[in-house]
Amino acid sequence: GHVQLPPPQNVTLLSKDFDMILTWTPGEGSPPDVTYTVRYESQERMGKWIKVPHCKNIHSTSCNLTCVLPNFFVKVRARVKAVSGRFQSPWVESQFKEYHLDVELAPPVLNVNVKENSVHVNASFPLATCVESSFSWMYDLNLWEAGSEDKKQYERIFRKNAVTIDTTALRGNYCLSARSSFQSIDFKHSKFSQPVCVLFNHKG
User: Fold this and answer.
1) Ranges for the Fibronectin type-III domain (predicted)?
2) Alpha carbon distance 131, 99 (integer Å)
3) Residue 3 has what pLDDT?
4) Which residues pair with 166 in a beta bridge?
5) What is residue 135's predicted lDDT score, i.e. its pLDDT?
6) DSSP 107-123
7) Residue 193: which region, alpha, beta or left (left: phi > 0; alpha: psi -120 to 50)?
8) Residues 76 and 23 occupy one common structural domain
9) Are 172 and 199 a contacting pair, CB within 8 Å?
């Protein structure tokens, strides 16, 4: 009989930076020309494994499933097999995950626009277009004087909205940082973004 290919290992469905991604590592002793094929199954239709067209015979060891998910509120799992010539490995399955409950947020990128007596801040999110309109992402913004621990907080600003802060009374170097937030069963938050520091009302 034919020798089977070694199956992929460490098959994990993970939610990272707003995306749902299946990752794996090559089975021990896999040939160099090995490719992988991925399918997924949702709890709505158990036993029906659905093809993922962009993850058929791929060389990479990950597959982004975000925009093929049939429903962001239903648990799905995925499976992957190795293929080389006429040989293939058994399928290896991941655990179940649900986008809405398990999504892991990435910090937003701040866009800071300093005017004469104010600063305009808005946040952009590294979102796949398919999820853009599905949820109301928000962000929390912190403003503080460089070197100080005392932070002014602006909370739960809708993603599309900018914040305008009056800087008339502020002098010197101030920093801004934000995190993504999202209401599922409770509030979820990303880490805070790297601070962006700007000089206000600098004379001279």
Assistant:
1) 7-102
2) 10
3) 64
4) 118
5) 87
6) PPEEEEEE-SSEEEEEE
7) beta
8) yes
9) yes
Q: In tens digits, what is the pLDDT along the chain, a chain of 204 residues?
A: 456 899 999 999 999 999 999 999 999 999 999 999 999 999 999 999 999 999 999 999 999 999 999 899 999 999 999 999 999 999 999 999 999 999 999 999 999 999 989 999 999 998 998 998 888 899 999 999 999 999 999 999 999 899 999 999 999 999 999 999 998 878 899 999 999 999 998 764
20 C-beta neighbours (distance < 10 Å), count:
27
Nearest-angstrom CA–CA distance, 40 and 93: 9
Q: Residue 103 domain-assigned? A: no
Domain that holds residue 147: 109-200
Same domain, yes or no: 169 and 93? no
Same domain, 18 and 82: yes
User: How far apart (Å, rounded) are the C-alpha atoms in residues 190 and 140?
Assistant: 10
What's the domain count of the chain?
A: 2
| Distance spanning both ends of the chain, measured CA to CA | 83
Q: Quick one: which of 161, 153, 159, 1 has its CA closest to 86? A: 1
- Structural element, H or E, at residue 104: none
Unique residue bearing structure tokens 């809708």: 158
